[in-house]
Design goal:
The protein is of the alpha+beta class. The chain is built from 15 helices and 17 strands. Among the domains are: 128 residues, Beta-Lactamase (2-Layer Sandwich), CATH 3.30.450; 117 residues, 2-Layer Sandwich (Beta-Lactamase), CATH 3.30.450.20; 146 residues, Histidine kinase-like ATPase, C-terminal domain (Heat Shock Protein 90, 2-Layer Sandwich), CATH 3.30.565.10. 53% of the residues lie in helices and 19% in strands. Its main location: membrane. This is C4-dicarboxylate transport sensor protein DctB. GO terms for molecular function: ATP binding; phosphorelay sensor kinase activity. It is a multi-pass membrane protein.
Length: 587
C-alpha cells in the first residue's frame, strides 16, 4: 500500500505544474509586464506630443481669426469719424436717416453694433434703435474717445456675465469734438466654434483675466481660479481617475475633474493669450489598442505553455488510476467508521433536543408572566393617548392628535424592545452596552409615564445635575428599571393626600438614582426582590418588576437597594459605575 506522504507527492507531480513550467510562466509574465510598461510609456509620450501639436496648430488658427476680426472692426471708427454726412448730422442735429445709414454699413462691414453719440454723450443714431436717446456720458468708451485723438479699444464686463469689446473714436470738425462713434466687435461667436474642437478654450488679456471662454464660469477670473472651479469628485470618481491615468505623465491640469493637456499661444494684440485644454481620451484609446495586441500575444504564449504542461499530466494518468483504486479501498473503510460515528451522534442529538425542550418549557411560564407585566405600562399609556387623540380630533386639533399618534408609535417600538430585553431576567446581558446619559434615560421614562402621572395627580420633583451623568449600559434596560421604580412609587402613594415622588440623580464615585415616595413604606423588605412577591391585589401585578430591575442593575455592574424613610415612605437607590470607573456588582 502506498504511504500517505508518497501519495501526496505523486498527486502534486501529476496535477500541479512542474518546476520548468512554473519558471516559463513566471518569465512570460515578467516579460509581459516590462514590455507593457515600456510600450505604454513610449506610445503615451508619442501620442501626447502629436495631440499637443494639433492643439497648438488650432490655437494659431484661432489667434489669426481673433486678430483679423479686431483689425477689421478697428478700421470702422476711423472711417466713420471722417464721414462728412455724420459730421454734418452732428453739427446740425438732424439724425432722421443716420440710423438707417449705420444699419446699412453694419450689414456690409459685419460689426456687432454701431452707435453715434453727440457731444453730450446721448445716443443719436444706432443699429439697435432701442438704444436711441440713452446717455453714455459716464461710460468709459465715451470718456476715452473724447480724451484721445486715436481709436480707443475697451473691454467691458456685461451684466449678463460676459464681456463686450468695442472701438471708440471721437468725431472732430477741425480741433473741435462734435461726437463719438462706438463700434462693437462680436468675439463671442468664436466661443461657439471653439467648443467643437477642444474640451475648453480661454482667451486672457494682458492681466491674466479670462475674457472669452467655452466655460461660462471662467469669465472674469484668473486661469488658476478658473481651473479650481470644479465639483469635488466622489471616492469612485477619484478611483477611476487614478486607474485611467496610471501609466501617463502627470496631467497639465484638470477640467471638470478630468485630466487635460494644456496648450498656449500669444495673440499679437495687447498682450493677449489663448489657452486650450484637450483630454487624453484619444491618447489613451490609441495606447490601449496597442497594449491590447501585445497582451493578446502573451496570452497566446501562456496558453501554449499550459497546453504542453497538460500533455505531461495526461501521460501520468495511468499511475493516477492505480493509486485511485487504493484510495477507494481506504475510503470504504473510512465510510464504515463514519457511519458508526453518525449513529452515535444522532443518539446524542436526540438527547440534547430533549434537554433543550425541557429547558424551554421550564422558562416559558416565567417569560410569559414577565412579558405580561412589562407590557402593561405601555398598553395603559397607549390607551390614554388614544382617548386624548379622539378628543383632539373631535376638537379639530389634528396636529396635536398626530403628536399623540407619534407617541403611540414610539410606545409600540418600546413594547418590541421590552419583549427583546426582558430575557435579561433569565440570562446575562451587556451585548449592546454603550456610553449613555442617565439624565436622558430618566427624561424618556417620565415621558412614557406622563399619562399615568397626570391621571394619578402625583407631584414629581426631579433634581438632576446640569452636567451629563455618563454610565455604560443599555438605554432600553436602564429605562425599564426607572419605569418599574416610578410605577411602584405611584402605586404606593395612591391612598395618600398630596402624593409626591422625589427623583434625584447625583454623581460622585458612582452615578446614583434615588426614587422616594411619601407612601406607607415597605412592609416586608427582606422578600422585596424575590420573584412573584407582591403586595398588590390580583390583576394589578405579578411581583416581577423589582426582581427584573435588580437583575438588570446587576448586569450593569451596579446595585439596587431599598429602605424605609424615617419620616415615612420608601426609598429606592440605584448605583451604576460611572463611565470609566469599575464597581463590583452586589449579589
Amino acid at each position: 500500500m502506498v504511504n500517505a506522504p508518497d501519495l501526496d507527492n505523486r498527486r502534486t507531480s501529476i496535477l500541479g505544474i512542474p518546476l520548468w513550467g512554473r519558471v516559463i510562466v513566471v518569465m512570460l509574465v515578467a516579460v509581459a509586464l516590462v514590455s507593457t510598461w515600456f510600450l505604454n510609456a513610449f506610445l503615451s509620450e508619442s501620442f501626447t506630443e502629436s495631440t499637443r501639436n494639433r492643439a497648438e496648430l488650432r490655437l494659431v488658427l484661432y489667434s489669426g481669426n481673433i486678430q483679423s476680426e479686431l483689425q477689421r472692426n478697428s478700421v470702422v471708427p476711423l472711417l466713420l469719424a471722417r464721414d462728412p454726412d455724420l459730421i454734418s448730422a452732428l453739427r446740425e442735429g438732424s439724425f432722421a436717416t443716420t440710423s438707417q445709414r449705420l444699419i446699412d454699413l453694419q450689414s456690409e462691414i459685419g460689426a456687432a453694433t454701431i452707435e453715434l453719440l453727440d457731444n453730450a454723450g446721448r445716443v443719436v443714431a444706432a443699429t439697435d434703435r432701442n438704444q436711441l436717446g440713452k446717455s453714455r456720458n459716464s461710460e468709459a468708451a465715451f470718456v476715452e474717445a473724447r480724451r484721445s485723438s486715436d481709436t480707443a479699444f475697451l473691454v467691458q464686463e456685461l451684466d449678463s456675465g460676459g464681456f463686450g469689446f468695442s472701438f471708440a473714436r471721437s468725431v472732430r470738425q477741425g480741433s473741435e469734438v462734435v461726437g463719438v462713434v462706438i463700434v462693437g466687435a462680436d468675439l463671442t461667436k468664436f466661443e461657439r466654434s471653439w467648443a467643437g474642437f477642444a474640451d475648453a478654450v480661454a482667451l486672457m488679456d494682458s492681466s491674466g483675466r479670462v475674457i472669452l471662454a467655452t466655460e461660462p464660469r471662467w469669465r472674469g477670473r484668473s486661469l488658476e481660479e478658473a481651473l479650481a472651479l470644479r465639483d469635488a469628485p466622489s471616492a469612485i470618481a477619484r478611483a477611476l481617475r487614478v486607474t485611467a491615468d496610471w501609466a501617463q505623465s502627470p496631467p497639465d491640469a484638470f477640467v471638470r475633474g478630468e485630466a487635460v493637456l494644456q496648450s498656449e499661444v500669444r495673440v499679437p494684440f495687447r498682450g493677449w493669450r489663448l489657452v486650450s485644454f484637450t483630454r487624453y481620451d484619444s491618447v489613451r484609446e490609441s495606447v490601449n489598442a496597442a497594449l491590447a495586441l501585445l497582451l493578446t500575444g502573451f496570452a497566446l504564449l501562456l496558453a501554449l505553455v499550459f497546453y504542453i504542461v497538460s500533455r505531461r499530466a495526461w501521460s501520468q494518468s495511468a499511475l493516477f488510476q492505480q493509486e485511485s483504486e487504493e484510495l477507494r479501498g481506504l475510503n470504504a473503510r473510512l465510510q464504515r467508521e463514519i457511519a458508526a460515528r453518525v449513529r452515535v451522534q444522532k443518539d446524542l442529538a436526540v438527547a440534547e433536543q430533549t434537554l433543550a425542550q425541557s429547558s424551554k418549557l421550564a422558562s416559558l411560564g416565567e417569560m410569559s408572566a414577565s412579558v405580561s407585566h412589562e407590557l402593561n405600562q405601555p398598553l395603559a399609556a397607549m390607551k390614554t393617548y388614544l382617548a386624548g387623540a379622539r378628543l383632539l380630533l373631535k376638537s379639530k386639533r389634528s396636529e396635536e392628535a398626530l403628536a399623540s399618534f407619534q407617541r403611540i408609535d414610539d410606545l409600540i417600538d418600546r413594547m418590541g424592545a421590552i419583549a427583546r430585553t426582558l430575557k435579561s431576567f433569565a440570562r446575562k446581558g451587556g451585548e449592546a452596552f454603550a456610553p449613555i446619559d442617565l439624565r436622558t434615560c430618566l427624561a424618556d421614562a417620565l415621558t412614557m409615564m406622563e399619562p399615568m402621572l397626570r391621571d394619578s395627580r402625583v407631584l414629581v420633583v426631579r433634581t438632576v445635575p446640569p452636567e451629563p451623568v455618563m454610565i455604560r449600559g443599555d438605554t432600553v434596560r436602564v429605562e425599564q428599571v426607572i419605569l418599574n421604580l416610578v410605577r411602584n412609587a405611584v402605586d404606593a402613594t395612591c391612598g395618600v393626600n398630596s402624593p409626591q415622588i422625589d427623583i434625584i440623580i447625583s454623581q460622585g464615585e458612582t452615578a446614583k438614582l434615588t426614587v422616594r415616595d411619601n407612601g406607607e413604606g415597605i412592609k416586608n423588605i427582606d422578600s422585596l426582590f424575590e420573584p412573584f412577591y407582591t403586595t398588590k391585589p390580583a390583576g394589578k401585578g405579578v411581583g416581577l418588576g423589582l426582581a427584573i430591575s435588580s437583575g438588570i442593575v446587576s448586569d450593569h455592574g451596579g446595585r439596587l437597594t431599598a429602605l424605609n424613610a424615617p419620616d415615612g415612605g420608601a426609598v429606592f437607590e440605584v448605583e451604576f459605575p460611572r463611565e470609566g470607573v469599575q464597581l463590583d456588582a452586589a449579589e
